[in-house]
Amino acid sequence: MTDDKDVLRDVWFGRIPTCFTLYQDEITEREAEPYYLLLPRVSYLTLVTDKVKKHFQKVMRQEDISEIWFEYEGTPLKWHYPIGLLFDLLASSSALPWNITVHFKSFPEKDLLHCPSKDVIEAHFMSCVKEADALKHKSQVINEMQKKDHKQLWMGLQNDRFDQFWAINRKLMEYPAEENGFRYIPFRIYQTTTERPFIQKLFRPVSTDGQLHTLGDLLKEVCPSAVAPEVPMPEVCSWLPTWLLASSAEGSHLPSLWRDWEEDGPRLSQQGAENRRNQSPGTETRLLHREKSA
Amino acid sequence: MVGNGELQRTVLMATCVKHIFKLKMELQCHIKEHLTMYRHFFLWRAKKTINKIKRQPAAKLLQSCPTLCEPIDGSPKGSPIPGILQEALDPPLDDLEVNETTTAAEVIKYEYHVLYSCSYQVPVLYFRASFLDGRPLALKDIWEGVHECYKMRLLQGPWDTITQQEHPILGQPFFVLHPCKTSEFMTPVLKNSQKINRNVNYITSWLSMVGPAVGLNLPLSYATAASQDEGNVDGQDSSIERKSLEEH
């Protein structure tokens, strides 16, 4: 795990440059300037946009303001998805900055969960962490933790404190020496082309004959239409939670998968590029591009 | 309570991606055999009148019989499911009990779904509620509407009990009763029934325990129908089943 510290840090500190613009039909007392912000991939929209809210509310009257919500090219943005996931799913092929429209009225009840306070985000985040641990450890690790540990996990995310977060999260990433990995790998696969929001199934890190599963095995089994043939996936599946899953600070609910590990050798990144070319149309499994460090 | 004969004949249908199960009340539902492998999907439509002014959540239930809607898990329409009921019309009002106070009350429509969680390996109750004009209820309305006898438990940890979540198949906002404690309270039920050599319909037992907290009161006839069909026509045996359900 210690070797992966760099990768964990890179994932944690990934940012998306975003431009927030007020929806044109909102009633304002004067012109509203767009607001620029670097959004953390691992966090949630409603957790990191207080400044955005304040900025636009300055030019509006109190009576014209109700619950804030965000939209990209007509699609309401589900705040309960990690920001990185939303971007990869909807906007990764567009030029930066990511252009998000801000609304203060006509909340889309049928599409979005309400988020009246930070408590809602905390509850959602913790329930994801708990569900992941149910898969990894039959909930033993998370249930043995004290309430203050849970709080520390949440505060680490809220305040962008890598060390504070991982001090607790590393316990959720461990497994006993005699096992070869977690009980099941917690993952979710998101695609733009399906009606169902995501694919989530039980998947063991080790096969019945003792072989460690790879990411390719997982995808082949769970999402066969999205995988190009002859994909070498040397990364073992049990490492998935450590790196990629860490990309959605929930620790283990993994948004889209695949990284371009340029430094891991030309072969891998070449294959990564080929994967993208070989995607059959209509099954765009999102590729999570490595963020260049700022 | 509404003693509608229809209830006895209601068929709970479950469909999943690979197979179609027919869960009549007389069928046993062994969770290990069935639910661990497949997802089940039930849909009830129940109309419930809440006396909004007095905020009495356990108000008279103008409940239409749980009817069956088409399964919405992606199985093809027109699947050969014998006896599937089309969405039934509401029974005429004079068949149901009517409280005088309800004339001034708002009608709230509840929709309940039972899904299976492969992470927790238990069923989970999802529901949504709206007024007849389509206005949805907010989470705090739902919390306020929880029956008094469950209020204590809710107040201990509302965020761990009922929250709004995305329906994993429909992708729309629903309220969810958290499943993390389900196996904890279901294990004694299953153990006890094994001791007295009785089969338990997991879904009926589970739903009779969690449903009432969120307005879904399962009529006793579900349980008696189940026990009758198991071939235990003996009155004594039925009363044991009834008793163990009542205790919860």
Return the structural class of chain A: alpha+beta
**Compute the gyration radius of chain B: what is it?**
18 Å
Low-pLDDT parts of chain A are: 229-294
Rg for CA atoms of chain A? 20 Å
Shape of chain B: globular
Q: What is the straight-line distance between the termini of chain A? A: 24 Å
- First and last CA, distance of chain B: 19 Å
The strands making up the biggest β-sheet of chain A line up spatially as 2-1-5-3-4
Number of strands of chain A: 5
Biggest pleated-sheet summary of chain B: 5 strands, antiparallel
Helix percent band of chain A: 25-40%
* DSSP summary: helix tally of chain B: 8
Strand elements of chain B, count: 7
Structural class of chain B: alpha+beta
**Overall 3D shape of chain A:** globular
**H and E string of chain B:** HEEEEEHHHEEHHHH
The pLDDT mean of chain B sits at 61
Commentary on this structure:
Chain A: Residues 11-104 form the Autophagy protein ATG5 UblA domain. Chain A: It is a peripheral membrane protein. The complex is a heterodimer of chains A (294) and B (248). With 294 residues, chain A is an alpha+beta fold. Chain A has helices spanning 5-12, 45-48, 50-57, 83-90, 118-137, 140-144, 147-158, 162-172, 215-222, 266-278; strands at residues 15-22, 35-40, 69-72, 75-76, 98-103. Chain A has a 5-stranded mixed β-sheet. Chain A is globular, with a radius of gyration of 20 Å. In chain B, helix 7 (220-229) packs antiparallel against helix 8 (235-246). Chain B is globular, with a radius of gyration of 18 Å. At the A-B interface, helix 5 of A face strand 6 of B.
